[in-house]
Amino acid sequence: MSVNRYFRILSVVAVVAVCTVLVNGGKAQSASAGQNSGPQSSSNPPVPKKAEEQFKNIQVLKGIPADQLFPTMQFITASLGVECEFCHVQNAFEKDDKKPKETARKMMEMMFAINQNNFEGHREVTCYSCHRGNANPVAIPAVMTEEPEAGMGAPHQPGGEKAETKQPNGPTAQQLIDKYVQASGGASAIDKVTSLVMKGTIDFGGKSLPIDIYSKNPEKRISFTHLSDGDSVTAFNGQEGWLGSPGRPLREMQGSDLDAAAIDADLHLATHLEKMFSKVQVRGGEKIDDKDAYEVVGQREGKTPIRLYFDQQSGLLLRLVRFGDTALGWLPTQIDYADYREVNGVKVPYRWTLARPSGKFTIQVSELNQNVPVDDAKFVKPASPPEPSKATTK
Questions:
Q1: What's the 3-state SS for the chain?
Q2: Beta bridge pairs of residue 226
Q3: Into which CATH architecture does domain 3-35+165-379 fall?
Q4: What is the distance between the alpha carbons of residues 255 and 66, in angstroms, rounded to a whole number?
Q5: Exposed end of the chain (fewer CB within 10 Å): N or C?
Q6: How far is Cα 79 from Cα 247, in angstroms, rounded to an integer?
Q7: Within a 10 A sphere around the Cβ of 344, how many other Cβ atoms?
Q8: Using one digit for the tens of pLDDT, what is the confidence trace for 278-297?
């Protein structure tokens, strides 16, 4: 495993920690409490920088928000199955020394033109449409080696949304959300949760590391993954989010990462689901670990949708899928929840697995304490500012 990939997984790991309490109180990842996810804006919010104002040698991606640049690069690595060094010179990202970088620019221009000329500018074609995890797209259809699965080739809607499949006489989306709240312990028990402190292990890439997670109402959370040379930290204090790793500068959360952190920090998210979505609908069913689940898709105003999968029997949340928006397409994050246990009347998942195109990991909680004192000092951002990035991309 390369160093870049290792640290990228650690960052995901930290975010996973953030996803910990998400279901714990019956949470699910969605927009932050209420309809606003992310820090509160002031009356005169600062104008966000564009990519070319913060990074060097930006050519094709001029005009996109600077905080979308790194997620956009992650979308490329996931679509092509490559690392940063495939296109970039290590520690000199602004250089154009590698031919694949120029090729990538041409491919993005082609993709933008296809969408503009054929799909009214809607993002229907992405890098993944052709590459499917390969640096070189496969142009020749493969021969059939297995019998086709039932339902293969079902139509899909743009942006990864599946075509709607209705189940006659089945429950409505609102009924499923209500059942989830009750299965998790009920609104009264969930809303009494003021803090959570968890200890456990995080397993990824054949490694198992100890992890501690602290969460406090309102909307504060921090996790510590203990490495041999220090801690990998993911934090959100209700206004700002940041990531830290040993020997590397502090990185502030932005864009989709900040949105996700604000969502995860809501200890009462299960009871906020109804207000979070502008529209919810049932999209049929799915099998998850031999359990039948209903899929509910929640639309958010101005944000990507969230998919929730509820156990048809227990009503508990088995899976949550959310999407990070980038300049080139959506990056999915899937979280599977298991090992539910009751803590002070609230059902909490003691194990969850987070998967992204770049990798996955599993957190197993061994100790969980609810409504215990957590010092606010834990959520204070370190005084030293992050080093300004001088890297660049496409």
A1: CCHHHHHHHHHHHHHHHHHHHHHCCCCCCCCCCCCCCCCCCCCCCCCCCEHHHHCCCCCCCCCCEHHHHHHHHHHHHHHHCCCHHHCCECCECCCCCCHHHHHHHHHHHHHHHHHHHHCCCCCCCCHHHHHCCCCCCCCCCCCCCCCCCCCCCCCECHHHCECCCCCCCCCCHHHHHHHHHHHCCCHHHHHCCCEEEEEEEEEECCEEEEEEEEEECCCEEEEEEEECCEEEEEEECCCCEEEECCCCCCEECCHHHHHHHHHHCCCCHHHHHHHHCCEEEEEEEEEECCEEEEEEEEEECCEEEEEEEEECCCCCEEEEEEEEECCCCEEEEEEEEEEEEEECCEEEEEEEEEEECCEEEEEEEEEEEECCCCCHHHHCCCCCCCCCCCCCCC
A2: 231
A3: Clam (2.50)
A4: 9
A5: N
A6: 29
A7: 12
A8: 999 999 889 999 999 999 99
Could you tell me which of 9, 141, 152, 27 has the C-alpha nearest to residue 78? Answer: 9
| Class level of CATH domain 51-139 | mainly alpha
User: In this structure, are residues 203 and 321 in contact, taking their beta carbons and an 8 Å threshold?
Assistant: no
Give whole-number Cα distances, 388 to 134, 250, 252, 384, 385, in Å.
33, 10, 11, 12, 9
Q: State phi, psi for 138 to the nearest 5 degrees.
A: -85, 120
Q: Domain boundaries in the chain?
A: 3-35+165-379, 51-139
The answer to whether 291 and 315 are in contact (CB under 8 A) is no
Place of tokens 């934090």: 235
Q: Whole-model pTM?
A: 0.76
Task: Write out pLDDT tens, residues 10-67.
Answer: 444 444 444 444 344 444 333 333 334 444 444 555 677 898 998 999 999 998 888 8
Token pair, residue 117, equals 């000329």
Rounded-to-integer distance, Cα 24 and Cα 203, Å: 20
Q: Rounded to an integer, what is the distance from CA 280 to the centroid of its chain?
A: 20
Residue with tokens 């300004």: 388
Distance CA 160, CA 330 (A): 8
